[in-house]
Amino acid sequence: MNDTSLGQQYFDRLYERDADPWQFQTSDYERDKYAATLAALPRERYQTAIEIGCSISVLTQMLAPRCGEILGLDISQAAIGSAQKRCANMPHVQFQVAQFPHVELQRTFDLILLSEVLYYFDAIDIVTVADKVWEIAKPGADIVCVHWLGPTPDYPMTGDQAMTAFEQALGAPEAVYRTREQNYRLDIFRLPPTG
């Protein structure tokens, strides 16, 4: 396992070798996980959503009809280029190359999606991620976390370790949905309606 958070070079190398390094477009695992994620969302519609680590935006595209605006962030320029092409006919979907949590955002969100990203951070950076989530969340926002439960030899944490660290750093918010499937876990939290 890596001791520190994974940076831009790690992801740039992945996308240089394969434009879809996790087979988001073709994997049965991804298809089923996306369907479960969308079905579990507590609200039918969100005004503003952010997907952190959107990659090539397969999930973003599926989520778009349920959101007034979506911002997709990814550390990889190659991933964002593919994402922009995929969602080119969706003017309410925007993308930005950014290294979360080290990004300035001028708006807040009622849906914050962290799908398969928290285990790329080390324990120190997960605290910073949680602080940033609080900063960009509207009161009462839903925080959706999805993570692979298999081995993560290249990452600083496993899915379970990352979720435990993130939930503690977030301050043990209200869990409105949890499920643990064979290969992934899905956790949804709702922040308090007032800051």
Tell me what you see in this structure.
The chain has 195 residues and is of the alpha/beta class. It has a single domain (8-190), classed as Rossmann fold (3-Layer(aba) Sandwich), CATH 3.40.50.150. Helix content is 33%, strand content 27%. The protein contains six helices and seven strands. A seven-stranded mixed beta sheet has the order 3-2-1-4-5-7-6, sandwiched between helices. A hairpin with a 3-residue loop joins strand 6 (174-180) and strand 7. Helix 5 (123-136) packs across helix 6. The radius of gyration is 15 Å and the shape is globular. The protein starts with 7 loop residues before the first helix and ends in a 5-residue tail after the last strand.
Q: Please state the second-level CATH architecture.
A: 3-Layer(aba) Sandwich
The separation of the N and C termini measures: 36 Å
Give the count of structural domains. Answer: 1
Q: What oligomeric state do these chains adopt? A: single chain
What is the rounded Rg? 15 Å
Which structural class matches the secondary elements?
A: alpha/beta
Main β-sheet: number of strands, strand sense, barrel status? 7 strands, mixed
Tell me briefly what this model is.
With 195 residues, the chain is an alpha/beta fold.
